[in-house]
Each structure stands twice: as structure tokens, then as C-alpha cells.
User: What shape does this take?
Amino acid sequence: MDGEDARWVGSMPEVYERCLVGPFFTPFARELAARVARGDPHRILELAAGTGAVTRELLATCPDAEITATDLNPAMVELSTSRVPGPTWQVADAVALPFPDASFDRVVCGFGVMFVPDKKAAFTEAARVLAPGGRLLFTTWDALASHGFGHPLGLALEQVFAGDVPAFLEAVPHGYHDTEQVGADVRAGGLEVVDVATLTLEGRAEDARQVAVGLCTGSPLRAELERRGDLDGTVERVAVAMTRLLGDGPVTAAMSAHLVEAERP
Ligand SMILES: C[S@@+](CC[C@H](N)C(=O)[O-])C[C@H]1O[C@@H](n2cnc3c(N)ncnc32)[C@H](O)[C@@H]1O
Assistant: This one.
């Protein structure tokens, strides 16, 4: 995987927050934060926190906890530091965490692990910074076909780029859905799997265009589209194709993801 598949730069965090967080990420962030709150943890580390979809929920469900929210991309941390006050925000790569051993009760990661090339290394780092008995909780998307917004976006890309569809969506955000593999990687990192739940939640967007703009310009798919030239024209064609598939006006979609909970022995 090229580093570009995990890069949010320039306006991407702002577009991600405006177009994708509400429809795609907030429903799962609520579930994740509710699970994290069980056991009343005091020291919480969030990885791949992005624009703070999970962070905002953690501030509500764990109001007395010390929350450290981190992300690989400085542009994400910069935006979140001003928009989501409360936690300590800092740049950190999930595979090389700048924290001492056994310094957290919970490590939380909403839809970030798929972007880390070496999953086992990330789980090993999470285990290292967790206190004994501490838990890692994370979400990862199920297959692209199970996502009521991502799947039609893939169909729209097929219409626009007949025979030469960008691989990003299927290979990266939806490329880590085999729960056998996920469980094996978690165990290889030194954690015990406590629970793997597959959740199907509803997402709502203002219209199909919001989803098209969000995925094409607020996710790393953008880099692949930019290389092909005429990004604005591509976004327009994808938005029109998405609208044909999903209809005009507000759209809802079922989205499936796995929520994994693991414990440091
Ligand atoms: C789909 S976003 C999820 C953001 C947020 N957790 C949410 O639920 O909206 C993926 C995030 O993973 C971050 N990321 C990618 N690779 C990472 C890594 N190696 N370490 C930490 N964060 C990473 C990206 O910068 C991005 O913010």
C-alpha cells in the first residue's frame, strides 16, 4: 500500500468532516463510545481520530476520563484541535506511539486500522501502551457490497471509468473485513479477542451528491482521481451517476461494520 492511501492533506479534512462524518461515521462512533464507557475507564487513547467523530462521543460518554486523541495526519490534528476542544490532541502513527508502556485503560480506533499497512504492528503497539486488563476497541468496515453508500459509489465509478475503476475503496477502507484475519492479527499483537460484533446501522445524507463529493475529494480516493486529471469534471460525473442510482433529495443507506473488542492479558 502506498502512503498516499492514508494521507489527508489540504482541504481533505474539512470535506471529510462536512460530507462524510455525519452520514458514515457518527452512527458507528456512538456505538463505539458507548462500549468504551463500560468499565468507567480513566485514561483513554484514541488512534486515527480524524476530525473527532469518535472523540466527540467519548467526551459525552466518558466525561471524567483523560482523553488523548491522535492521528497520523497533521492536517487532521490541526482541524480537530480547534473544533473539538477537551482532549489532548497530538500527531501519532499507530505503529509507533509516543507513549510509555501500560499508560492507558482503553485504546480506541474508529475506522483507522484499515489504513495501517502493518496491522500486527499496530495491535502490538496498542497492547504495549495498554495497562494489564486494558482493552482495545476498534471498528473496520465490512465488504464494500454491504455499504449502501460505498457500493453505489463503486458502481458510479465503473460508469465513469469503464474497465479502469480506482481500486482504493475496495482495497483499503473495505479491504480489512475478514473477521478470521482480523482476529488472528489481534492475537498476533498479543491481545485476547473478547468480542467481534457485526453492526448494520443507517446513514443519512442530504443527497447523493454529498456522498460523491465526500468520497471523491475528502478521502484518499482523491489522489487516484487527481492523477487521472480533471478532478472537478470527474466529481460532477460521479455525482450525476450517484443521483441516478440513489435518486434526488435526502438518501439513507444501511452500512455494515465490525466492532472488535480485545483485552491485554
Ligand atoms: C476514515 S478516517 C477515521 C477518522 C475518525 N476516527 C472517524 O471515525 O471519523 C481514517 C483516519 O486514519 C488516520 N490514519 C491513517 N493511517 C494512520 C496511522 N498509521 N496512524 C494513525 N492514524 C492513521 C487518517 O489520518 C484518518 O484520520
Q: What stands out?
A: The chain has one domain: 3-263. The longest strand covers residues 192-205. The mean pLDDT is 97.
